[in-house]
Amino acid sequence: MYKRQPLSYDREDALPTQGNVNINQENMTTMTTVTTAPEYPIISMNEVTAFYARVTLKYEDSSMTSSQQKTPMDIVCVLDKSGSMQGSKISGLKNAMNFVIDSLTEKDRLSIISFESNTTLIHGLLLMTSENKVKSKSLFASLSAGGGTEILTGMKHGNSILENRQQRNAASCMFLLTDGQDRQYTKEKLDLAKKMKAEGTSLFVFGFGTDHDSEHMAAIANAAEGTFTYIESDDVVTDAFGGTIGTIQGVSLSNINLNVQISERNVVIKQIIAGRYITSKSVDGRSGTISFVNMYMGESRDVLLLLSLPAVDEPIQDYELFKAHATYYIQGEITKRESNSIACDVDRKQMNLSDPNNITQRDITVDVHLNRHACTTALSLALSLADNNNFEEAKIKIQDALTLLKTSCLLYTSDAADE
Q1: What is the spatial distance between Cα 220 and Cα 385, in angstroms, rounded to a whole number?
Q2: How big is the CA angle at 174 (ends 295 and 110), to the nearest 5 degrees?
Q3: Could you give the angle at which helices 409-418 and 364-387 cross, rounded to 10 degrees?
Q4: What is the DSSP string of 321-346?
Q5: Are residues 71 and 212 in contact, defined by beta-carbon separation less than 8 angstroms?
Q6: pLDDT value of residue 18
Q7: How many CA atoms lie within 13 A of 208 on its CB side?
Q8: pLDDT of residue 122
Q9: Measured by CB atoms within 10 angstroms of the end CB, which terminus of the chain is less buried, N or C?
Q10: Running DSSP on this structure, what letter comes out for residue 388?
């Protein structure tokens, strides 16, 4: 069931200017930088069947003018007021909403929906003028917790607000504030999150209460390439919501492709490890692409490549494994842009592993991402096993991951720094 507030609040405010608000791109320098790192700088001339390399794309803005600009936003906040949100949770949610409202400008529009078993439109997309900020705060101030929980219904109605807009601000996003205690219709929630991603809506999920379902909420956020943040107390509201809003207000990139092209003959990409992001690899393993829906200023994306290297007949300096570059669009522009192109190379030489001078340390950044991948994989498997009451197997998965971490070069680097 879908309830509405009185008609005076069931509206969409027109944008301050006709159509979309354009971002002034003059004198703006957008920096996208691609960097690479091989697992080891020197490797033997023999065949290597498993060799890792890191590729990182970072988005920075080097201009003063654009850092002072704020991208106008359309935000829909979907608030959980079910029975499990009683007490400090609903109080914390209200404090968070007050902060969100105070952070928005007169060019931003905000709509609020609450849900339990049913959904209620608290107000439509209102420009956050001083008058409307007072109205918005007064409308959700009386929110009380009670009833069942249907997150999917809240998400659906929040998304319909964005889909049915007459006008669109430059940035669109949904804030889902909940304790996540609703595992119904999980597939439908993930499908909706993916649909939102495809339509250019950013999803940010905020968890309230020590008993929140972090796994479920993280899965929803990940499906939209969004983020999940646990709001432990009112003390973290400013950092959590302020950081999110500040990020969205920067000029974003969209339709980003990080492209990898193998250089040397018979070098092959065996696997692209990119977490939740979409990847593709050519049949012959000579090229690969990693796609990101958007990136906000200051963000970076890290990818690991698992490569197979052939044997070589003689030592080779600067043996080029691959080149990487990115293509993307800047918010408000229709021209595709391209980053720098960077090579990843190693030295191939005859190596006697019994000679300490020939032993090189694994690149720290590669080690970090391998550890992260191993831990997230182990945790995912352990949670799945625990859900099926297979606690001993879950414990083994965690212990295996801990054993792997103890072999990390980071551990030895840290020990050396402490001496």
Answers
A1: 20
A2: 115
A3: 120
A4: EEEEEEEEEETT--S-EE---EEEEE
A5: no
A6: 47
A7: 25
A8: 93
A9: C
A10: T
C-alpha 160: how far from its chain's center? Answer: 23
Name the pLDDT band for 299 (thresholds 50, 70, 90): confident
Question: What is the DSSP-derived secondary structure letter of residue 85?
Answer: G
Cα separation, 395 vs 385, whole angstroms: 9
pTM: 0.72
Q: Any idea which of 141-155, 196-210, 239-253, 305-319 has the lowest mean pLDDT?
A: 239-253
Q: Quick one: DSSP state of residue 228?
A: E
Amino acid (one-letter) located at 284: D
CB-based contact 288:279 (threshold 8 Å): yes
3-state secondary structure at position 34: strand
Maximum Cα–Cα distance across the chain: 80
Closest C-alpha to 112, from 14, 253, 5, 243: 5
- Give pLDDT tens digits for 101-139: 999 999 999 999 999 989 999 999 999 999 999 999 999
Q: 164: exposed, middle or buried (C-beta count within 10 Å: 0-12, 13-18, 19+)? A: exposed
Rg for the chain (alpha carbons), in Å?
Answer: 25
Task: Report yes or no: 129 and 106 within 8 Å, Cβ to Cβ.
Answer: yes
Q: Where are the alpha helices (DSSP H) in 17-129?
A: 64-68, 88-103
Residue 239 sits at φ, ψ, to 5 deg, of: -65, -45
Query: Judging by beta carbons within 10 Å of its beta carbon (0-12, 13-18, 19+), is residue 258 exposed, middle or buried?
Result: buried
Beta carbons of 232 and 203 less than 8 angstroms apart = no
* Residue 347, pLDDT score: 94
What is the average pLDDT value for the chain, to the nearest integer? 85
Hunting for tokens 């646990």 — which residue is that?
230
